[in-house]
Structure formats: structure tokens, C-alpha cells
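This entry is retained here.
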Amino acid sequence: MKILVPVKRVVDYNVKVRVKSDGTGVETAGVKMSMNPFDEIAVEEAVRLKEKGVASEIIAVSLGVAACAETIRTALAMGADRGILVETDVDLQPLAVAKLLKAIAEKEGPGLVILGKQAIDDDMSATGPMLAALLGWSQGTFASKVTVDGGNLTVTREVDGGLETVELKLPAIVTTDLRLNEPRYASLPNIMKARKKPIETMKPEDLGVDPTPRLTVIKVSEPPKRQAGVKVGSVAELVSKLRNEAKVI
């Protein structure tokens, strides 16, 4: 069984995000970029399934600028077998990403697609469910445990009330939660081997997909600075401030 793992290039989670002076977006020039942390979890889970003999091949896919190839190389160093880069300068939104992944899935024929539940740059959590809808596949979102048994897939999900376990038929879509696993560090030998693994490059038009954005960003601004705390002299003064000055957000 093939496993398809989409991986996104995002601003590294250790970097303090800065808004561009003209308010058109987030500053990325000269900023450290890395693989989306939830996608690292997805790659790790795919590698573990391959080590158990469940999967025969892991394909890492990234969509975006040419530098996304480095994100694919990271996945290859972790244990993926080959990569696919859909190169475009267009600002890809979840629906366009889902359409591109659908086209790749139909081309490659994977039995399972594992991807992060969300990307830390937009936090939309939309790509996985959109992809499942476009393909007509079952989905297990926010997965904290994944078990494959023949043609069945059991997913334990993180939900507001605790845990929910669902059984799916393959092929299926799984989106990963933080508690699914802890991603491994790529060893130096594997990093060297990753340089020799193949990455196929294509364009959105090769897949018959128009990635033109459907949404327009009007303005990006930083959140207001937090106000300093105020000391009160009595309970009565505290109650008065809560009643008259506190704002409900």
C-alpha cells in the first residue's frame, strides 16, 4: 500500500512572526522556514506504518515555491521514499491544495493519505476534510492513534469531550493530532541518502488544476499589545472595575 504525505513549508515555530510594514502579509524574507510540525507527525506515522510492513512506499508531496523541495528532502531523510513537488508562485489556499492533492492521489493511487490536522501559518484545518470530500473517501481527523488491519483503519480521535474511536474502510484520509507520536530526528546517513532520492517536479496545469485564490486578504495586522495589570485596594473596587470597565471579547 502506498501512503501519500503532504508536507507544507511554513515559518519555523521558534520564529517570532512579524507583519509586513504595508500590512499585506507576514514577513518571510530572511526568515527561517521548516516543515509544518503537524506534517512532521504525519511523516513519522507513515514511516512507522512502513516499518510494521503495512505500507510499501511513502510519497512526500509539497506544493509551492521551488524552496519547498527542501521540505520534501526533510521528509525523505525521515524515511519517505520519493517526493513530488508541484511548483507554483501562486499563494495556495486550502481548496486549491485539496484539488491538487486529489489529482496526485488519482495519479498515484495511494491507499492512505496522512497529513497534519492544520498548518501553523493559517490554522485553517480545512485541507484534509476538503480532500476527503473531493475524493469521496472516509476520513479520521485529529488522530491520536492509528491502527491498520487489512482493509480497515481504526482511528482514535481527539474530540472536545475526550476520545472517539472510528473504523474506516481504506482508502482513507487521516489528519494528525499532537499526541499521535513524536517525530524522529533524521540521522546524518539518512540525510545523505535523501539527497539521492528522486523528486518529481510538475506544475498545477500539468494536473489540470487552476490554483487561483478564491479569497482576498484585505489587511494583516498585529494583535494589540497587552495592557499592564492594575492593583486594586479592595474587593469592592475589584467588583466595580469588573462591572464597569471589563470588556467582553
